Amino acid sequence: MKIKHMLYSLLLLGTLLPVCLFGLFMIRENDKKVEEILREDLAATSGAQILDINEFCTARQQEMLRISEYVMVRDAVAASLGEKKPHGGQDEEYMEDMLSSVMKHNNCVEYISVLDRNFHLVAASDSDAITDKEGLQAANVQYEDGGFHIGNIYERDTARGKARLVAAVQGIKEEGSLIGYIVEEIPTAYFDRLRQNAGLWKDGTLYLLDGEGNLITAGTPGETSREAYATSEKERENFTAAWNAVDHEKTPSGCISYRMGKDKYLTYFAEFENTDWGIRLSINLSRYKEDVNAYAILVLIGIVCMALILALTSYFLTRRLTVPVSAIGSVLDQVQKEQNYSLRVKNMTDDEIGFVGGKVNELLDYIEAERYEMKQAERDPLTGLKNQKAVEREIQEAVVRAAQNGSRIAVGFVDVDDFRDINNQYGHME
């Protein structure tokens, strides 16, 4: 195997092959774990939204409990029930000031009402607030046990137009007995803002639903709000089947996968305390995989570019190594063919190959000098003709060749008579 071929093979096995295998492995594993990773991300993202809404519910409960424990509030409610004498309008005035103060420092509550247990209005922050049992029942909220609860979405006309609201109710108790209610009405626009400020994917759709499946808020981060689903019931058949397959009593939160058209979706769901609400966070898994495939293409392009760079690097490195070696081999071949020991290796590099080339030139110098001395030893210094020793050697070599070839040889000679006399008469130079 040629050195350059061996170098190419080593480069392929040592660099290109591991890089390619690693890239293909990463693409395969990434595609394989996309759904698993997305499920975890959906749970984490939904968890942040659940935490925000639970903190909201807790804050409302604490605020309403604080109001319910004011002595003046209890006295005003008791007076409305006829259980205590009113304080000459001071209770009502105090409560209106207090409710106004709450409204001023609260950006999520639209109206606040205080009712006694007979659903008579004790005080309200606004004339549009709930003032009786009929209004409380229309608010679609549980209130019978006097505990804290946030109800389902409802609509009603106000002085500002039609409003979409949810109501929170907290009972007012005196010595363990229920004597009244505090009612807060919260616009759904507040939850729209929560959704828009959530750290969702651009393609992620968040749904906050009440206990009857109505949309409190829904949409992507860029949408203002959806009051209805963007798909039909028929288009949601696969989702409905996957949803109904879950035992929600045993599994209050989890993730389901389903198809809608040609695309596959994932939806994470969970429930909230003190409400009948649920959250759903959906993402188009197929579209996300398209992004992953785009990433895979970039990885492949990167691998190809790296392979080209390594191949070019290998080519120039091997060329730097093999070209001088080839030059040395070419010179040696020419010396052998032409028996010309005056040839030399040229353009030697300053490295190990150049060192070898220098040694080859030194060897050729030595052989050329030896051959010159041998040549001089076999020739007559005056005439330059081969001497007796050289002729004998050549005859012996011819005999060997003839024996090997099965051929014959003939030896002829020319004698110059009286040659010594010519030397003596005319001299060696002549």
Q: Secondary-structure element sequence?
A: HHHEEHEEEEHEEHEEEHHHH
Q: Name the structural class.
A: alpha+beta
Mean pLDDT value: 81
CA-based shape: rod-shaped
Largest sheet entry? 6 strands, antiparallel
Q: What gyration radius follows from the Cα positions, in whole Å?
A: 51 Å
Low-confidence stretches: none
Distance from N terminus to C terminus (CA atoms, Å) equals 62 Å
The tally of strands reads: 11
Helix content: 40-55%
As a percent range, the share of strand residues is 15-25%
Name some characteristics of this structure.
430 residues; alpha+beta; six-stranded antiparallel β-sheet; 11 strands
Summed up:
The protein is α+β, with helices and mostly antiparallel strands.
Please outline the helices and strands.
Layout: H1 3-68, H2 71-80, H3 90-104, E1 111-116, E2 121-124, H4 133-138, E3 149-150, E4 154-158, E5 161-174, E6 177-187, H5 188-196, E7 205-209, E8 215-219, H6 237-244, E9 254-260, E10 263-271, E11 278-284, H7 285-338, H8 352-377, H9 388-405, H10 419-426
Antiparallel strand pairs: 1-2, 1-6, 3-5, 4-5, 5-6, 7-8, 7-11, 9-10, 10-11
Helix pairs in contact: 1-7, 2-3, 7-8
